[in-house]
Amino acid sequence: MSEALDVVEGGRMRLEQYIAMQVKRQRLGQGLKIADVARIADISQGMVSKIENAQVSTSLDTLSRLCDAIGLPMSKLFADFDRPDGGAQLIPAGEGLEVVRRGTDKGHTYHLLSYKQGPRKSFEPFLVTMDDASEVFPRFSHPGSEFIHILEGQLEYRHGNQVYTMGPGDSLTFDGEVPHGPEKLLQVPIRLLSVITYAQE
């Protein structure tokens, strides 16, 4: 194996360490002893022990025989190696960024559930709460498409000339350029998820 595989880059696990961990986990899961594996794979017990302790870079042939002995396909052995670390953004319950929008002064609360997307945002998810029965609502118009999903309460929602009666579990998708917004609050409090997506140039 290449000497480059012996290097730990950015804190990532060396290939030998990864193989050692997977092989030992599979052997123990099968209830096999090192002696059993060595006999089935026709490999010395010392070699099996060194592989499981990341003390040696073994050949693919030896590794293949070892994997056969413990019932671990080679494709599965390497499936998770060098997987990207990922960088998902977790927003715990109740910790969305509260923002001001046109409905804020009408008793509507907006919590942005994803931010720090870089200079060009591709979408904006909001948790919207309405807790008053005011009959005066702003009309929204913005670029992109919008998806809303009712979590709690009931309302009439207008999009252009159409009015939709919505309750828990109902969803609506529409063109954000067309004026839209709540027409009438039928049962408060109302909680809805709103996701606005923007076209990418």
Summary, kept brief:
The protein has 201 residues and is of the alpha+beta class.
How would you describe what is shown here?
The two termini are 44 Å apart. The chain has helices spanning 15-29, 34-41, 45-52, 60-70, 74-77; strands at residues 97-99, 108-112, 123-130, 145-159, 162-166, 171-175, 180-197. It has 201 residues and is an alpha+beta fold. It folds into 2 domains: 3-77, lambda repressor-like DNA-binding domains (434 Repressor (Amino-terminal Domain)); 97-197, Jelly Rolls. It is elongated. It contains 5 helices and 7 strands; from the N terminus they run αααααβββββββ. Strands 1, 2, 3, 4, 5, 6 and 7 form a 7-stranded antiparallel β-sheet that branches. Helices cover 23% and strands 29% of the residues. The longest helix has 15 residues, at 15-29. Residues 1-12 have low confidence and may be disordered. Helix 2 crosses helix 3 (45-52).
